[in-house]
């Protein structure tokens, strides 16, 4: 199509599932003659793939739309679309609040993007937030067509039936749906043919994965582990209640399954866990961690925490600190509770903002100490590192350890996509420095 080719710019917010969806939208739009571009300035179509998880995340969309409005003033035929979880949650409200927006499409309807663009060109400002009966995955080209990097995401499960009292995801992503294992395997093989050696299986509740034939996550992992050329498998995000015996056993048996697990617990107080509708206690979680470490002693754990959930007292918060002390996290995310419209906890009397941020600081200080200790413990070890891309400085490459730490080292660019032994020589705030070891 040459010079007549149109360009699309997608800005991605939120979780890895949005990253994956953006890749699939890029692939779908590629089939419609849109080439990806790295800046909105020369784009014919700009998509904001949004996140609704906390108020701040959702508000970012409107400030970005403000910036885009100025750009569009000089380029009236540029199209602007809002996709993702804000699109799903707010739908037509976005069209009303932001006149610059041409179309709105929720996560379950991305395969309808080309027809929505056509409807916009015909004069409509379409909003598509249905949960269609057809499966978008049957109608979207593989993300693998848009992939170049050695590590890739692959969505295997979407949606959530857990309804934690604080969370918008069950509303924005709908109920749990698992893709058939055979499809996933085919997509994984496609990725491996394009040079991918590490796949992270994605799902809002990935360990609740169960396909229409009854294949669970452990069986899926074993099936993918049989693919030659696929060397590393990860999955995220897991719910503690869905870590079944088979999956725990797989961590002890399957060498390709990496020793890093993101296992959010949110709080260490039973009272708060109950109010959050998490359906497990702090001890259940600690026992689970013990069982996982029994089969995989070097398992690095990651978590998510919410502080200042409605009703959280200083004693409840002390329970969270105690749980963190007991687990010892390699890495973790922590957030001040943000009331989300439409969720059960939204109407409950809140913890004062000052208390929330004071607790958040204390928790984060502890989590940073643990992360620092975890990284310091890697120094002196030789780890297999997947070399992924050029680093910041000349001659440098960056890669990932089995524990998902970023590792920077001097290495030839040809090593990209290879897993090589690297001696860890130093640690900084968010990454490790290594030295290539001749094998
Ligand atoms: N499905 C995953 C993660 C969902 S969202 C899970 O079950 O853990 C990612 C994280 O955002 C959550 O784990 C939670 O810690 C945080 N989060 C979700 N809703 C929030 C809210 N209303 N306020 C603050 N943090 C929230
Ligand atoms: Fe949200 Fe809870 Fe579902 Fe995770 S398990 S997506 S926190 S409702
Ligand atoms: Fe955000 Fe939606 Fe992911 S709300 S965290 S983009 S599932």
From TrEMBL:
Subcellular location: Cytoplasm
UniProtKB keywords: 4Fe-4S, Cytoplasm, Iron, Iron-sulfur, Metal-binding, S-adenosyl-L-methionine, Transferase, tRNA processing
Catalyzed reactions: 2-thio-N(6)-dimethylallyladenosine(37) in tRNA + S-adenosyl-L-methionine = 2-methylsulfanyl-N(6)-dimethylallyladenosine(37) in tRNA + S-adenosyl-L-homocysteine + H(+); N(6)-dimethylallyladenosine(37) in tRNA + (sulfur carrier)-SH + AH2 + S-adenosyl-L-methionine = 2-thio-N(6)-dimethylallyladenosine(37) in tRNA + (sulfur carrier)-H + 5'-deoxyadenosine + L-methionine + A + H(+); N(6)-dimethylallyladenosine(37) in tRNA + (sulfur carrier)-SH + AH2 + 2 S-adenosyl-L-methionine = 2-methylsulfanyl-N(6)-dimethylallyladenosine(37) in tRNA + (sulfur carrier)-H + 5'-deoxyadenosine + L-methionine + A + S-adenosyl-L-homocysteine + 2 H(+)
Keyword NAD among record annotations: no
Broad class of the protein's primary localization: cytoplasm
Cofactor note: Binds 2 [4Fe-4S] clusters. One cluster is coordinated with 3 cysteines and an exchangeable S-adenosyl-L-methionine.
Domain TRAM: 376-438
Matches recorded under Pfam families: Radical_SAM, TRAM, UPF0004
GO cellular component: cytosol
Span of domain MTTase N-terminal: 6-122
Source taxon at top rank: Bacteria
Enzyme class: transferase
UniProt: [4Fe-4S] cluster 2 binding residues: 160, 164, 167
Domain Radical SAM core: 146-373
An example Gene Ontology molecular-function term: metal ion binding
EC id: 2.8.4.3
Protein residues bound to [4Fe-4S] cluster 1: 15, 51, 85
NCBIfam families, sorted: miaB-methiolase (TIGR01574), MiaB/RimO family radical SAM methylthiotransferase (TIGR00089)
HAMAP family, alphabetized: tRNA_metthiotr_MiaB (MF_01864)
Function in brief: Catalyzes the methylthiolation of N6-(dimethylallyl)adenosine (i(6)A), leading to the formation of 2-methylthio-N6-(dimethylallyl)adenosine (ms(2)i(6)A) at position 37 in tRNAs that read codons beginning with uridine.
Oligomer status and interactors: Monomer.
Family: Belongs to the methylthiotransferase family. MiaB subfamily.
Name of the protein in question: tRNA-2-methylthio-N(6)-dimethylallyladenosine synthase
Annotated gene: miaB
